[in-house]
Design goal:
By secondary structure, this protein is mostly helical. The chain has helices at residues 26-49, 57-82, 89-104, 108-129, 134-139, 141-153, 156-159, 165-181, 188-215, 220-250, 257-269, 271-296, 314-329, 339-369, 375-381, 391-412, 436-461. The protein has 17 helices and no strands. The chain is globular and about 70 Å long.
């Protein structure tokens, strides 16, 4: 970290390393206990959803409600104790819980999702800020969770579920520190991709281990047979759903077995992309929790620039557009999927959430620059609620077109010259070195001016 600092220990523009002060006092203990409780909820709820839980369903629902309330109270208390906003975590959890409860009639699924992202997000806060004395204790939290789960459930393979979030939490912590302490570190999207990769590898390793315990072998012939059986059963389930709901919502499908088969095959073929997109969404929400936690615990100076800005590259936008064109063209007989079309559809599924979010943020910046209140954003999207299923795709396609064609437009029509502020007074003329507060204020002014110039240039390009 010292190598990235100047001789007078002043961080260069865009660099404010996360200090290793740690989370001290009662809040650190509360966070560690909540991380263990959230990790224990994972095997408890997974066994309940699989019908293998030894606990009565009502008790499982009560424990799920208790876990949700503890996490909500934690966000509320930390925001109140620090006097800083919790970045809307409590309203977001309440909204997700109510919607999921309305759709499923159970609290187990929202408790599972909230506990999982809480472990990753707040675990990353703990790892990113832990000092030399706190880090060994923080790294023992997964071991404590595993041991308690083993004692409660009596089976090691169920206790392994408590370890799922922590490799991703450690990756998220390292990526966030890299972004905060170096101008060449990972971007925010890069941190999401690295964390998603760590989580995917962890899930794959756990799935292979559970498969080995169940089948006693990992031979390709055995795996291929099980995958074929799974695909056949899933095809039957999706076919029944398509016929039942398609007759009411879309169009009558009875007697059109070929169309139903194509729909089902398309859904199954895009499952890899759907799983990757779901992992990316979970990691992005976990990152929101991490950045909010850094703000709450007094590390907000580091959550600026590349740590905070969500930008999609033009290369990703070009790949999205190319895949979109291939998916339109590469269609087999009777709408059947082809290999090229399947690959393109999976790429589209993976890139759509990120591009859609980037499109929303671009629209919010555009409105804020022109003094439009954020509430007007909801009013603007209200007429499109009927197209809610297509809204992410519309936003993603619009953002991709802007990212790809903005450089071309800039070459054809150069942007207006930027207004340059007078250079700040040279430090050589100062009779005394700047204090830490003066250096930070100077850094904030320079960063704000740089962000303003970048946003103005992007708006002109668009």
């Amino acid at each position: 970290m010292n190598s990235s600092l100047n001789k007078d220990k002043t961080p260069p523009l865009g660099v404010t390393p996360i200090s290793r002060e740690g989370i001290r006092g009662p809040l650190g203990i509360i966070l560690a206990v909540l991380l263990i409780i959230s990790a224990l909820m994972l095997p408890l709820i997974v066994t309940a959803l699989a019908g293998l839980s030894p606990l009565p369903p009502m008790l499982t629902e009560g424990l799920s409600l208790a876990a949700l309330l503890l996490i909500i109270l934690y966000f509320t208390y930390t925001a109140k104790a620090s006097g800083k906003p919790s970045r809307g975590m409590t309203p977001l959890i309440l909204f997700f819980t109510l919607i999921t409860f309305y759709m499923t009639g159970s609290l187990t699924l929202p408790a599972l999702a909230v506990s999982f992202v809480f472990c990753i997000g707040e675990g990353a806060v703990l790892y990113a800020t832990a000092g030399s004395r706190q880090l060994p204790i923080a790294l023992l939290i997964p071991a404590f969770s595993f041991g308690i789960a083993w004692l409660l459930f009596g089976e090691a393979h169920l206790a392994l579920l408590t370890l799922l979030p922590f490799p991703a939490a450690l990756t998220l912590a390292l990526g966030t520190r890299s972004s905060a302490q170096s101008t060449t570190g990972l971007t925010r999207v890069g941190v999401i991709c690295a964390t998603s990769l760590a989580l995917s590898l962890t899930l794959t390793a756990l799935a292979l281990w559970l498969t080995y315990l169940s089948l006693g072998s990992l031979e390709l012939s055995v795996l291929s047979q099980k995958i074929a059986e799974f695909r056949e059963s899933l095809t039957q389930i999706l076919t029944n759903i398509s016929i039942t709901y398609g007759d009411k919502v879309l169009k009558p499908l009875e007697g059109k077995e070929a169309e139903v088969a194509n729909i089902v095959n398309g859904m199954i073929n895009t499952m890899p992309g759907t799983l990757v997109a779901l992992i990316n969404i979970l990691v992005a929400i976990s990152q929101m929790i991490t950045l909010s936690g850094l703000h709450v615990y007094g590390f907000g100076k580091s959550v600026t620039g590349r740590v905070r800005d969500f930008r999609i590259s033009a290369v990703s936008a070009f790949v999205f557009l190319a895949s979109w064109i291939v998916a339109l063209v590469a269609v087999g007989e009777n709408g059947a999927s082809t290999i090229a079309g399947t690959v393109a559809e999976n790429i589209i599924t993976i890139l759509t959430p990120g591009l859609a979010l980037a499109g929303i943020l671009r629209l919010v910046r555009y409105m804020a620059k022109r003094g439009i209140r954020p509430g007007c954003f909801i009013i603007l999207l209200a007429p499109l609620l009927g197209l809610v299923a297509y809204l992410p795709g519309i936003l993603a396609l619009s953002e991709a077109l802007i990212l790809v064609f903005s450089p071309l437009r800039a070459k054809i029509k150069p942007a207006a010259p930027e207004k340059k502020d007078p250079p700040p007074p040279s430090r050589e003329k100062s009779s005394r070195p700047l204090t830490d507060e003066e250096r930070f204020e100077q850094y904030c002014r320079e960063r704000q001016q740089q962000d303003s110039n970048n946003n103005e240039k992007q708006d002109n390009d668009s």
